[in-house]
Design brief:
By secondary structure, this protein is α/β, with parallel strands linked by helices. It has 22 helices and 25 strands. The protein has a seven-stranded parallel sheet. A six-stranded mixed sheet has the order 10-11-12-13-14-15, with helices on one face. The protein is globular, with a radius of gyration of 27 Å.
Length: 681
């Protein structure tokens, strides 16, 4: 079934490569055709690196995996590639946990923390759409976070479980139901949702894992009709001749494999219990015995258990220490000749490098103290050397490539000239404190407000970067009191809401975003003409040379681009960042002069990325609602003399109870109160 039809990438764009793009495309394509394993595209912000990569893909015609370091950037890149390749399969693959607390044990306080996860069903659907596209189409681009290096399940078993229905086929009802249950589908007699099916008389209906559409089959002796139906309106979208159904989950196994897995698990359990007995570890012995047997009973009776991925090695048939199956294996299974693109590689590569050690450190405590069998070690992300072997031909993309990319690339391609003629923004240094040291007597906050108001008057946007999340929140509240439309953006904001906030800035619903380091990488907002970097002289990760260059680049997509660094001391990082910015400006200005180019602001359609993926989201942080919740919380605390930590613990318990009782409005109020309490703490 793999690649039953060889489909070609067809690039669609209203503009042609310009500036440094033609040369960069030619050099990268030549490098791939000459067999270079590693290349780096050093492209300044706003130079159209994504368009360059799109042209490379169109010329080499290889399935492509693009890895980004966060979900927001991945969503943006996916949207851009969908615009360039509207007829191809361009899919989004990120972690489907909105909230994830991994299982862990803290020996110092004898605290066991059970795994908690809230799965986002929409993102889970997109993950299935991604793996199915890889296995069935040659014109596939998957844009992924570092979720690409995590355990996913065997692609061969995933394919082995596929069901195919065609008009005229005989249908063994009982056999089909048993097969669907093996594929992790669930039978229901009520409303259908993803991964469920039902049978009513002559009608068989199912919603597959990768889309929100009902597949309806009318069955007599044979299948007489196959329709695709809208689940809400119940209107028939179209009739089809056949359908392919993939498993509802990525972890699937046959009855025979399950039997083998159970035999091996019991054998390993007995060996581990014998070890604990020999060591005199009675508590660990009883703990492991009870937990493992409970898990196996759950798998036997309902097909899964909490933490089933810790037994994945047995079901996958892998040896101890063998690398897990990941998204890369789906590419290899379909076509060994694929391209990997690592976006913002100076951040993404170190992130990938650190994943394994963090996971292992957590598993050490769980296994040593009898919470898991040693097989839990093999439910893991790839080690970095395993990752390097998997990626094949690779292009690193960054405005500030790190030493790793430079040392491992056989070719570094520079892309400094922007097609729009825009030059890197003017950089101004102003003091943090007001008074005599300042030309206008204003502090950095006072000066930021003045400059924000100037940009609002000409309908342009502003980004302000702070050093801490609390400062971002406090400054956001302060600006709201000044009647400025602002939102803060940091790691506590959920994936879908982050995307919505960026869209709101671009469309003018808000004028300012205040954030920490999330504003550095790849946020494509040409409406932003001012970037203000507070406390720029606080040397460290957030104010390093690389970070400053990346942040400065956020203003490079607008002709009025300007960056203000608030600093009382000119650090080495500031010197180097300004020196590199000025070097690029010199090259860009000389090119514009030679070719008679008048710079113009980048124009890019404001499209709702969430709607592109068929996802809707309601923003949970509205100014009026937040203010009211704060006032109610203050009244609540006035009569409560307990420590804040104790109140937080009680509120968390009440929130969990509200969710369990399906009282979601009460749970939302408690969640907002918890957010404010944690700020007080």
């Amino acid at each position: 079934m793999l690649y039953s039809i060889i489909m070609k990438f067809k690039l669609k764009s209203t503009y042609q490569p310009a500036g440094s793009q033609p040369q960069a495309i030619e050099e990268l394509v030549c490098g791939i055709n000459n067999g270079l394993d590693r290349q780096t595209l050093l492209g300044v912000t706003g130079s159209g690196k994504t368009f360059t990569i799109a042209n490379v893909i169109a010329q080499i015609q290889k399935p492509t995996l693009v890895i980004a370091h966060n979900k927001t950037l991945a969503a943006q890149l996916c949207n851009e590639f969908r615009e360039f390749f509207p007829d191809s399969a361009v899919e989004y693959f990120v972690s489907y946990y909105d909230y994830y607390q991994p299982e862990s044990y803290l020996p110092s306080s004898d605290t066991y923390i059970e795994k908690e996860a809230q799965i986002n069903q929409e993102i889970d659907r997109l993950r299935h759409a991604a793996t199915q596209a890889i296995l069935t189409r040659s014109d596939t681009i998957i844009v992924s976070s570092v979720s690409a290096i995590y355990n996913l399940g065997s692609p061969q078993e995933y394919l082995n479980q596929v069901l195919h229905f065609s008009l005229g086929d005989k249908l063994d009802r009982r056999g089909v139901m048993e097969k669907l249950i093996t594929m992790q589908f669930e039978r229901t007699n009520s409303d259908l949702t993803r991964g469920h099916f039902r049978m009513r008389g002559q009608v068989f209906e199912i919603i597959p894992a990768q889309e929100e559409k009902i597949y309806r089959l009318e069955v007599g002796q044979n299948i007489s009709l196959i329709e695709i139906v809208d689940p809400l309106t119940r209107k028939v979208i179209r009739e089809v001749k056949d359908i392919w159904l993939f498993p509802a989950k990525h972890y699937v196994a046959t009855a025979e494999e399950t039997k083998k897995a159970f035999t091996q698990i019991y054998q390993d359990l007995e060996e581990r219990l014998a070890y604990f007995k020999e060591q005199g570890k009675v508590l660990e012995y009883e703990r492991l015995k009870r937990k493992t047997r409970y898990d196996l009973e759950m798998i036997k009776n309902i097909g899964y258990c909490n933490g089933i991925e810790n037994y994945s090695r047995y079901f996958d048939g892998r040896q101890v220490g063998e690398a897990p199956f990941t998204l890369f294996d789906y590419f290899v299974h379909a076509s060994k000749d694929f391209l990997t693109v690592i976006d913002e590689s100076h951040v993404t590569v170190p992130q990938i490098r650190g994943m394994f050690n963090g996971d292992k450190a957590r598993k050490d405590n769980l296994i040593e103290h009898g919470f898991r069998l040693p097989s839990a070690y093999d439910n893991r992300p790839l080690k970095f050397n395993e990752f390097e072997k998997k990626i094949k031909q690779t292009i690193f993309v960054s405005a500030t490539p790190a030493d790793y990319e430079k040392e491992h690339s056989q070719q570094v391609v520079e892309q400094i000239i922007r097609p729009t003629g825009l030059v890197d923004p003017e950089v101004i240094i102003k003091p943090i404190m007001g008074g005599k040291t300042s030309t206008n007597g204003r502090t950095q906050i006072e000066d930021v407000i003045v400059n924000i108001e100037k940009r609002i008057k000409i309908n342009e946007r502003t980004l302000v970067t702070t050093l801490t999340k609390k400062m971002a929140e406090d400054l956001s509240d302060y600006l709201k009191d000044r009647k400025i439309k602002v939102e803060y953006l940091h790691s506590d904001i959920k994936t879908l809401e982050r995307i919505q906030i960026i869209n709101d800035l671009r469309s003018g619903k808000i004028d300012v975003i205040v954030g920490v380091n999330l504003l550095r990488e790849g946020l494509d907002m040409p409406e932003v003409s001012l970037v203000a970097i507070l406390d720029a002289d606080k040397e460290g990760f957030l104010r390093s040379e690389t970070s400053l260059i990346q942040t400065i680049g956020r203003a490079a997509r607008n002709i009025n681009g300007q960056v203000i660094l608030y600093a009382d001391v000119i650090t080495n990082s500031i010197k180097k960042a300004i020196r590199e910015t000025n070097r690029r400006r010199k090259v860009q200005l000389a090119y514009n002069l030679k070719h008679g180019i008048t710079p113009k602001t980048i124009e890019k359609n404001i499209r709702n990325i969430l709607e592109e993926f068929g996802i809707s989201v309601k923003k949970g942080r509205q100014a009026g609602k937040t203010k009211r919740n704060k006032q109610l919380l203050q009244l609540d605390l006035a009569g409560d003399s307990r420590p804040i930590a104790e109140i937080i613990k009680e509120k968390e318990q009440l929130m969990r109870e509200a969710v369990h009782d399906l009282q979601f409005e009460l749970a939302a109020i408690l969640r907002d109160e918890l957010h404010e309490l944690k700020k007080l703490k």
